[in-house]
Amino acid sequence: MQIPVHWALVGASTIADQFMIAAIRAQGGVIAVVVSGDAQRASDFAQKNAIARHATDLDAVLADPAIDAVYISSTNEKHLPQALAAARAGKHVLCEKPLALSADDAQQMIAVCAEQGVVLGTNHHLRCAATHRALREQLRAGGIGKPLFARVFHAVSLPPQLRGWRVEQPEAGGGVILDISVHDVDTLRYILDDEPVEVSAMTAAGSMGSAGLADGVMSIIRFRQGVLAQLHDAFTVPFAPTGLELHGTQGSLFARDVMTQRPVGEIVLRSADGERVIEVEHASLYDYAVQRFHAAIAGEGTPAATGQDGYRSLLAALALAQSAQSGAHVTVDSRFGK
Ligand code: NDP
């Protein structure tokens, strides 16, 4: 019988509250403590979620040998220092996306985790969805022939309680590209098993984003093997469905309602044989992510999205931001690509 993984939550966050606490517990993990920058928030969060301990001193928590792993879901600018501290204390690190705010920071996280011999995972949940896993399998099996184009529809309405730093604080890594586009990039990297090489993007701002933060973006990405992808991401669109389409020489896959945290959505394959529903067995995306992370700690396989995945998806997202700012196509640095 395996010993349960003992977790410290770093960040009294919405994502921990809504999804990750349940996922960790569903996989047999023990949430030993929540760490927050604010004592009252830590206490309220611990009480609401039946967590035995709460703290504001991360270093003291990291000094506890009973803690095996940390789940970092603080605002984005804190990911780097918290991940480095955890790794140096010998704790495995599951970090929220975007992994960091710069490529150098993300690389540093990967390097320190490797030096310390701890697992680093990035919580890109979408690749854990049964739908996206099925899309990847369809491509691998040649279901649409040679893939040519992808379209991602991820324009949503950001709920009022999630606005805050996402639409007000550039220094916290706000804005639609680091919040949503980075997920699209990761999902396409996973489905296509390929890496972005060149991007172009234009942003919208002003109806929700402030301080120069984009609240909408349309992007084009060229992947190394030739696929062109188009992304539409926004915080400001209340009534559009989400989806992902893949178009190839022998068929097209239409995945509806799949750019979501919930285990829902449907896939249809259209080809010369007509239309066929691709059956999927839906299950919690976050449970799968934690299951893979626990297994990686036990030496079995890798996290669903590794530190390298977080790094590469961030790199392309940063290139999108650079393109939007400069008005130019931007080449994605491929030093660490496949
Ligand atoms: P929240 O805004 O809910 O929490 C982020 C931080 O804000 C918390 O760590 C907390 O700081 C602080 N905070 C929380 N509530 C309050 C409050 N009422 N007043 C003041 N400060 C508060 O963020 P999210 O949960 O939406 O996102 C956290 C991270 O997770 C981000 O990196 C985000 O990109 C990522 N994310 C990932 C998702 C996924 O599915 N993979 C989905 C949503 C977010 P403190 O640590 O000090 O308690």
Radius of gyration: 20 Å
Average pLDDT figure: 96
Helical fraction equals 25-40%
As laid out across the biggest beta sheet, the strand order is 14-13-12-11-7-10-9-8-15
Q: How much β-strand is present in the residues?
A: 15-25%
Tally of helical runs: 10
**Spatial shape:** globular
What is the β-strand count?
15
- Which ligands are bound? NADPH dihydro-nicotinamide-adenine-dinucleotide phosphate
Oligomer description: single chain
Distance between the termini: 37 Å
Structural category: alpha/beta
Quickly count the domains. 2
Output the CATH topology of the largest domain. Dihydrodipicolinate Reductase, domain 2
Report the CATH superfamily of the largest domain.
Dihydrodipicolinate Reductase, domain 2
Q: What is the chain-wise order of helices and strands?
A: EHEHEHEHEHEHEHHEEEEEEEHHE
Which CATH-level-2 architecture of the largest domain? 2-Layer Sandwich
Largest sheet: 9 strands, mixed
Describe this structure in words.
The chain is globular. By secondary structure, it is α/β, with parallel strands linked by helices. Helix content is 35%, strand content 25%. The two termini are 37 Å apart. The chain folds into two domains: 6-124 and 286-304, Rossmann fold (3-Layer(aba) Sandwich), CATH 3.40.50; 126-282 and 315-331, 2-Layer Sandwich (Dihydrodipicolinate Reductase, domain 2). The strands form two sheets. It has a nine-stranded mixed β-sheet with strand order 14-13-12-11-7-10-9-8-15. Strand 11 and strand 12 form a beta hairpin. Helix 1 packs across helix 9 (285-297), helix 4 (79-88) packs parallel to helix 5 and helix 5 (103-116) packs antiparallel against helix 10. The structure holds NADPH dihydro-nicotinamide-adenine-dinucleotide phosphate. Residues 11-15, 36-38, 41, 73-76, 96-97, 123, 125, 162, 164, 179, 261 line the site of NADPH dihydro-nicotinamide-adenine-dinucleotide phosphate.
